[in-house]
Structure prediction request, 295 residues.
Amino acid sequence: MSAVVGVAKASAHWDRMYETATRSAWTQNPQVAEEIYLRMTGQPGFWLEWLFTQGMSPVERLLSIGCGDGSHELAIARRNFAHHVTAFDASPVAIQLASRQAAEEALAIDFQVRLFEDFVSAPGSEAVFDAVLFSGSLHHVTDVEGMLSSVRHVLRPGGRIIVNEYVGPCYQLYPQRQVEIVNRVLDSLPLAFRMGVDDRLALPTMEAIIANDPTEGVRSALIPLLLPLYFRETYRRDVGGALLHPLFGYLNGDRINDGSPESRATVHMLIALERELTHAGVLAHDFMFGIYQRD
Prediction:
């Protein structure tokens, strides 16, 4: 498959996701979101609030790469964490949604339809941004080295790169032990919490990966190794996700998120189980949060 076809498939995939308002299943659960924020920052509350009040200072100009429908960028602008935000994504549907909301609120955000590949080949003027944000987008970049080099080009000396990312196995081709653990936990749950009795985690074929989204985790495992080669690490937290992330894709979202005592107890148990399995080294950390600086 050519690179052009791959990019077109990925763009179409994200258009469909935003048209149907599809989001990552695990972080749609409030308890899981709260737990992930706690792991990211060591404190309760939304991670962006911590980032610009304790992790770093507000900035003049911020670039967000792979912004999706702009939820993070809108939050940043509303709170004056950045005086001006430039953000781009490959999905015209997402950018239309984001631009409409920014216009309604008169927020200083320049949303653009742009491909990763275009930014890598022509990033723009040197040293113009104080911060660059990747939130769930860098693991969709094929040329990670080219991307980080281009970010270094547009980032001012002393500027920060913020990374909130999946860094697990490429293409989410999980180790067999991880697959077995997820399925054993899934089998132990009451049927009311599951999508179907026969639904189980299985590794995708390459054909399925290409048909769905050929950029999903394309070089994700290399991200934590490459980042320190371009920027100086100033803060990093590994945040787990090796159980919760794949598991929630097989749970009945309406039931597990209904806020009942039974669902809350079940989610609490799942969070605790992942925490213990990760602490014991049985499961790896599939997600990370970090702040890096251009020296």
Q: What stands out?
A: The mean pLDDT is 93. The CA atoms of residues 30 and 257 lie 8 Å apart. The first helix runs from residue 3 to 19. DSSP finds 13 helices and seven strands in the chain.
